[in-house]
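fwd from M.: "can u put these together and see what the complex looks like"

so here's what she sent:
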Amino acid sequence: MNIRNKRWGWLSATLLIIIIGIVAAACGGSDSSSADTAAADTAAADTAAVETAAAAPEKKIVMGFLSNCEGPFGPFWDATLAGYYTALVQFAGATPVDPADPKAGVTGAMVPGTEIPIEINTDYGCSDDKADKALSEAKRLVEQEGVNILIGPLSGDEGIAVANYAKTQPDVTFLNGISGAQDTTLKVQAPNFFRFFTDGAQWTAGLGAYAYNVLGWRTAVTIGDDYSFPYTQTAGFVSEFCSLGGKVTDRIWPALGETDYSSYIAKLPNDVDGFFLDVGGTGTVQFVNQYTEVNGNDSLQGKVMGGAFISNPAIIKELGSKVEGVVAGSALPSDATDANWTTYVDAITAAFPDQAGNAANIFLAGYYNNTQAAILGLGAVGGNIDDAAAFQSAIAGVEISTGVGPVTVDGNRNAVGANYVVQVSDKGATTLFTVPDVDQSFGGAFSADTPNPDRDNPKCVAGNPPPWAASITK
Amino acid sequence: MISARLHWLIGIGIVIVAAVLPFVFSNFTTSQILTRALILGLAAASLIFLASLGGWVSLAQLGLYGVAGFTVGNLVQADGGAKVFAMDIWLASLLALVVTVLVGLLIGVIASRSEGIYFLMITLAFGVIIKLLFEKATDLSGFGGINQIIQPAVLGSAQLDPERIYWVCLAICVLVYLGIRYFAHTPFGLAFQGIRDNTPRMRALGYNVTLIRTVAFGIAAFIAGLAGVLNVWWNTQISPGTIDIGPVIFLLMIAIIGGLYRIEGAWVGALIYVILDNRLRSVDLVGERVATALGIVFLLIVLLSPGGVMGIYKSLASRWRRSRSESGAARDGDGTAAPTVAGD
Amino acid sequence: MASGSGLTAEVASALGPRARLSGGTLFLLIILLLAIVGIGIQAAADATLFAQITLNGLSLAGLYFIVASGFTLIFGLMRVVNMAHGSFYMLGGIIAYLVQERMLNPDPTSFDLPQATLTSFLIPLIVSMFSIALLGVLIQQVFLRWNQGQELRQALITIALSIIIADQAVARFGGIAKEISVPVRKSIQLPIVGMYGTTRLVLLLVAIVVGVALVLIISRTRFGMIVRAGVDDRQMVTALGVNIQKVFVGAFFLGALLAGLAGVLGGAVNSVNKSDDGKFLLISLVIVIVGGMGSLTGAAVGAVLLGLIDSYSDVYLPDAITNYGVLLTFFLLVFVLAVRPYGLFGRPG
């Protein structure tokens, strides 16, 4: 690899020109977009200008979007965009540019009840499930693109990082996308970070009671991938199951990225009533295949319960009858037929017909809920966000209408809403119980002072069951 | 030939211009473009240090960068990590450097017995193993990475005073650059380069080849560790994703863009990479497929100009010189021999 | 610098590994012995569990071996470190899945999974294997042929390709892991082990067949003869009038084919997953570094070591430190390289 190889000289020069061209095109592209964007750029480029902008009648509303277009969740990019834009179409009167392609965006979004435009930043934030990528993208949107309402991010670690960042940007309002770590709102407590979709632990609300009261389990073992999201989901199950008197005899945590669960399966004890399974999206397919291969095709029913991974329609489609009869927690009811659900599905169909099938996909729903909250908050302050604190307290007071009924936020700015205990059947996931008004604290079991959910926490303690536990019986 | 004095003047000029950039650009650009480029450049410099002087391409440098960052995160007050020490940030940073150098020496003593492409493979394996360790050992990497790592007080707030951390990074980068230039002319540095050029002869001359190489790897680990410490000072958080295989490859890409055999290329490459990364997604054709676009840029560079941008600069400069002095007597280049990593 | 002659790693060592019993090797053996005693104590406590996880480890090793043998074959002959080998593995699974989906044409509303027949398993397998093999040849011809000998540059080119392939896979292939349907998926009763899944047994069997076939190809065919000669002295082989370029194409074809095969088998036993490329690249690297680059025997031994470490550490490490299990792989690398810098069966250049 000799750099002095002369015949590369002219090629090198060409390459340099290409690179310069790309960089120039990229810079030029953003400068010459619209006058509005240019103005936003200038405003962002000079902090002094932002300060003096208060002298102008009202601060311009610039909404930004942060999700994952790379990494393991990259394929859910379109679904998250669809949720974001559906809310803008439904509540801010926007029109989709191309109903077949959410990426193309919308035009004409306005604050409800006013003529004030909501500018949609289309240099989307694209992360890859990594906290520092999400953080740098959030900074780019806020500090470079001049976004003052940011919707996102997608996953747990990203959410914690962005919520921490939110504390340093009090004038910008952050609404979560679909990241589910409990800490994001329970521990970080940024006053300008909201989550209008329940957290990962809330998605298992009702399962512990179902296991104890309906299935009659007294002992259980949990198996989950060794990272924050399964800790959070398992925390919900363990806390509820133990509060009723159940015992969790072991917690097995296969290392993250494991693809061969066979040895963990060999190690599972036989003398417990059941298992709570929470190995991640990819892992679910692998675990279930390896489990059923050894134990038979109908071996999961009554013996295994799952979290959001198993109730995910895409996973059910992949595993089919192998998971028939498995009971799982779910933030969305895919079989609902009530008015809330149909309104929600109709809104998606009206905006992006191709995405209607994703209605029960939490990625779409999470972005939908949070974007809606932002729009309703804007409406409540008449589009005036000069006083960020006033705008944020307006958001804290809104009640959004979702597929699962009204959702509000608690003092930690975290959603209080319904959760579902579902059973996998040939129709997908059939709702067994609706668990109303699930809050983040599980009846006090979780608070800012309790340890983070981890391999050993929460401890298995009897007493103080969450309010909904008593209603889940045979 | 450009005289050495002129080189110095140009260098000083560049540093002065770099130092006043925060007054020209917004906080965002200072922090997210310039500071980021300096830190990534420093990490790339540790890679280029080994490549230019030792003829080795190491993919473990980002892993070592992560070791330093995670060590700081675990030793100080932060959200996540071990949480038992709550040490002073300066002491923690110093200890992080010590730990990083020790890990570097351990990897170095093993890897320094290999050459060229084997070295690349072995260091890649070590780099990925370090990442896997932090990914799996959540006691060390916290719940969702380590967040809110405290900064040294003199740096003020990363948000309000981004220029302070920028200046600190700039100063350290300049020192490291000068240090590497100086090192190359010390007896030790010359011996290291001698090993690159002819290992058997150096061995025959009585040099302890393994020792020299291991120590050089330790020095590179120190530089990578500095970058890792600066990274957590700047970003106040670190997660296993920071040192995943993707970033490892992009660090290599920075070194390649800059030219694998020129120390200053590290920062040129880093700046180009950071700007591309920041701007590419605004190009309609690219959209969210930034990684593909970066991969194509990377591919074009290795296909067309293995010397990277600095190689392009050099070949243009030498062409210009040749056309001026038609004699062609002037040797092109300034004497930094580009080692051929290939076996023949 | 390493000279071109006397390649470090060689495929031919598959035929007769000459493990010299040096002090270092002895040290390694002692460590191994200690590990065996430790596991033995655990095994005595629960023989069935031990047998099960041993078989798990061995079948996993089978998969690892198929991937790594392709990697080591390409490296041994051509000195090309194919950093896109993990991408080949991943694409192998994806292509087979897509072909099978087209063949089975599952009813999207049906709850029951489509069941593959022997044909609808083998055709995707073959299509996928040969597509990957052709892709390998294409990459070799377009990107690697003209810079033969520039090892670093070739590695960088394949790295760049792997970035592009990975990102395109994210963009084009669905979000969650998919399963390649197999004709029979059930468990059978084995002595001591108890019930055990058939797909893993088949995987182990295929790996053994692949290993034997490779040894036969290398030792008995004209292609293998040239490969062995080429490994030792490429210039000489060319001088003797052999068209080494053709052999290179053959080697790349075979190496990529093996990665594709492994991708399909992995997709059938575990799942097709778009983030497997990095994992299997690392596995290939570790196996050939431990086993010795270019050595088939080394690949087999490395694969078995890694497979067994994987499954024993999942079960036998105390809970508090299972997460540090990856350090065992680290120490395996350190130990092996400390005593044998060129791997267990590698030869210095």
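replying to her w this: Residues 4-245 of chain B form one domain.
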